[in-house]
Amino acid sequence: MDVLYINGPVQNGPFAIAERPGKATGIRAAEALNTILGAGPVPHLWNTVTLAGDLHHRDALDRDIVGRQEREERAIAAKYTPGTPPASGVLTDPAPVVAALALEMTERLLLEGTLAITPTAVHLCTRCGHMTGTVAHACRACGHHGVRPHTRSLLVWDRPPDTPLLAREDFHAHRARPPAHLLTIAQNVPERLVLSRTRDHGISLEPLGLDGLVLDPRAGVHIAVLAAAARSNARQPVMTVTENAAANVAAYGAPFRRHNGTRLRYALHGRIPYDDTAALQLLCEVHRISPQLRELFLTWFLPLCSLHLRAGTTAAQLPALLKFWRRAHLARPDTPGRDVLAELRHSVAAGDMRWVMDARTLSQAIPEHPVTHGFTQEPEGAS
Q1: Strands 147-158 and 131-133: what pairing?
Q2: Would you say the pTM of this structure is higher than 0.90?
């Protein structure tokens, strides 16, 4: 399978999916689309290289007993229903397979001259030594406002002037225009991007002679997607991601979207108002929607809708979407038509999500059972 949908790594923060089900939107949408394509299971991707994670570990009373990696693994496991981890497994951005690919790609880009290791003027916190960046500002590691100038060797990307960081072809969307602000994102970042950071956890750049530095996690999340795609021999991985996330990571991932004939593209999805779904309970009672059908609506149909309604779904749209969903489910055939399924797979492979609002086509794709992915069910009242 050439096209494979993979979730943009979810930041491993202090939350449970049962409380914030929107965090699983990209995971659920990717798995639903891959199932339609007949692709094998894809691991759930998590972003663990964060400064917040460093600080949490440093402040933990058991930091001498529980290592940083183990702490991240425990936090990820807690996202899922106890005893039901995802059958496809999980993959984190500093996992050995990702780190190996990152070093391979970085070394190649250095040899090609795309990236460079060069002395660069930065600022260090005068209290803790954290590298705050090329512009002086308060330290995000300890909150101290004092910084001092320092020059040290860093991994950098000096992109050619007027080189766009994003183009329409970087988005996997048939006849859909990417948001204009994402296409002009190059105007908001400097021509030199520093790709090495001071972190306690991440893909170490020590093999490149950059002791104490890790690869910028915004680059690492792209490499994690490529590593997951390599497991399935997929040449066209598609990262499901929100507009905000794409705006934050795309610039730093630009040199890492292609590797050995594989090209990563983005599929944008909007927000789902899961915090407003409690009102659905009454609607479900009025329309006699079963708990199973309601669960499919929340965990399967709405994530797919989010790829079509990329600006986000509003609470005001939920009643109409629920009625549409009920009609499509009632029309669900015992045996899906081969021609319709072939057309559906073609649309999914092309990134055309208009079929989601076509009741006839949608009815052919609806699975028999709710897709929970090991997450706790019953998300109403979540934020």
Answers
A1: unpaired
A2: yes
